[in-house]
Design goal:
This protein is mainly β and 172 residues long. The protein has a single domain, classed as Lipopolysaccharide (LPS) transport protein A like domain (lipopolysaccharide transport protein A fold, Sandwich), CATH 2.60.450. Helices cover 13% and strands 59% of the residues. The protein has a six-stranded antiparallel beta barrel. The protein is elongated and about 95 Å long. The N and C termini lie far apart (99 Å). 16% of the residues are buried.
Length: 172
C-alpha cells in the first residue's frame, strides 16, 4: 500500500517551474494600458486640468502603486481663465504620495508667460508645490536665471532658487 502511494505520488508530480516563472512575469506587468488619453479634471463644472498622453500604464497592482507615462505628457492647468502648460518626455505619478515625477525635457510655461526648463521636476499634488534639486533655467520677460534646485508654488508666485549659478537681465 505504501509502495503504491509512493508510485502514485511520483507520477502525479509534474514540472511546473515555467508556470511559476510566468506568475512573477505577470505580477510585473501593468494591470491596465491606455493609449491616446485625454483626461479632463473638473471641479464645480469648470475644467481645472487636462492631461494628454500617448500611453499610460497602470501599476496599481504593486504595493507602492503608480501610473507611468512612458511616452510623455502634456498637462494643461487652468486657474481663473488662465492656462499653464507642463510638458515632459516621461512621467510617473505615485498614488500614495501624491507625487508626480516629471523627467526628460521638462518644460513649464506659466500663466505669466515665464518658462522653466529642467531635466527633472517633481510636483506635489497635495501641497501644490513644484521642486527639484537638479539644474534648471528660469526665463521671464525681464531675466534668465540658471541654478541648481528650486521650490515654488504651482503659480510660481513664491519661487525660491536654492543655488543661483547665473542671472542675465533683459532690457525691456
Amino acid at each position: 500500500m505504501v509502495a503504491a502511494l509512493a508510485v502514485t505520488m511520483l507520477f502525479s508530480c509534474k514540472d511546473n517551474f515555467k508556470e511559476v516563472q510566468q506568475i512573477g512575469v505577470l505580477q510585473n506587468e501593468p494591470v491596465g494600458v491606455a493609449e491616446h488619453i485625454n483626461l479632463k479634471y473638473t471641479d464645480s463644472g469648470k475644467v481645472k486640468a487636462n492631461l494628454i498622453s500617448p500611453k499610460m500604464l497602470d501599476f496599481s497592482n504593486r504595493e507602492f502603486a503608480y501610473t507611468e507615462f512612458p511616452d510623455g505628457i502634456k498637462l494643461l492647468l487652468y486657474d481663473n481663465g488662465k492656462q499653464s502648460t507642463i510638458l515632459s518626455d516621461y512621467a510617473v505619478s505615485y498614488s500614495y504620495s501624491d507625487l508626480i515625477d516629471l523627467q526628460q525635457n521638462v518644460i513649464i510655461v506659466t500663466q505669466q508667460n515665464d518658462s522653466i526648463f529642467a531635466n527633472q521636476l517633481y510636483y506635489n499634488q497635495k501641497n501644490e508645490q513644484i521642486f527639484t534639486n537638479e539644474a534648471f533655467r528660469f526665463v521671464s520677460p525681464t531675466q534668465v536665471m540658471t541654478g541648481n534646485g528650486f521650490n515654488s508654488d504651482k503659480n510660481f508666485k513664491h519661487f525660491e532658487a536654492l543655488e543661483v549659478t547665473g542671472i542675465i537681465y533683459l532690457d525691456e
